[in-house]
C-alpha cells in the first residue's frame, strides 16, 4: 500500500524520496478525483517538507501538483496561490524545464475564471519562451487553450492556425485528449451553420 511505501522510505531517511512518493501519490489520486486521500497524501508531503531539508525544486514541483488538483476541486484562489508560488520557486532556481506545466495550469485556471487576458498571457509565455524544453504535451495543451480563449472572445479568425498547429502536434504524439478537445471546439464552431458536421465532431470527441 502507499502507507507501507512511505514507511519504508522513512527508514531509508531520504527526505527527498519521501516527498517524491507522497507528493506523487497525492497528484495521481487527485487526478482520479479521490480528493480526501489526495489531501491526506499531500499533508504527508507537507509535513516532511516542513520538518526536513527537502530540495526547493521538489517543493516547487509538488506545489504545482497541488495547484492543479485544487483547480479541479474549484478551489480557485488556493490553486492560484499554489501555482504562483511554484512558478516563483522554479524561476528563482532557473528550473526552466519544469515551467511549462505551471504556465499551462495557470492558463487553464484563468480560462476557467474567464480571465481571458491572463490566460492568454500564460499560454503565450509558454509558447514564446519555453518551446525549447520540448514538452510537447504542454505546448499542445497551450495551443488548444489559446484556441478556446479566442473562441470565448469571439476572435474566430485567429482560431484556425492555432487549431492546425495543435492538431499536428496531437496527431504526431498521439495526444488523444487534446484531439478530443479540438473536436469539441470544432463542433462548437460549426454548430450554427452546419449542425450535422458539428454533430460528427462531437461524436469524435467522445471516442
What does this structure look like?
The chain is mainly α and 207 residues long. Helices cover 81% and strands 0% of the residues. It has 11 helices and no strands. It is elongated, with a radius of gyration of 19 Å. The two termini are 33 Å apart.
Mean pLDDT across the residues is 87
Order of helices and strands: HHHHHHHHHHH
Subunit arrangement of the protein: single chain
Q: Could you tell me the radius of gyration in angstroms?
A: 19 Å
Structural class by helix and strand composition: mainly alpha
Strand proportion? under 5%
Largest sheet: none
Helix share bin: over 70%
The total beta strand count reads 0
Shape field: elongated
Uncertain runs: none
Number of DSSP helical runs: 11
Q: Please report the distance between the alpha carbons of the first and last residues.
A: 33 Å
Task: Describe the SSE topology.
Layout: H1 2-12, H2 15-31, H3 35-51, H4 56-72, H5 76-92, H6 99-112, H7 116-129, H8 136-153, H9 159-173, H10 176-190, H11 195-206
Task: Provide a compact summary of the structure.
The protein is an all-alpha fold and 207 residues long. The protein has helices at 2-12, 15-31, 35-51, 56-72, 76-92, 99-112, 116-129, 136-153, 159-173, 176-190, 195-206.
Structural key phrases:
207 residues; mainly alpha
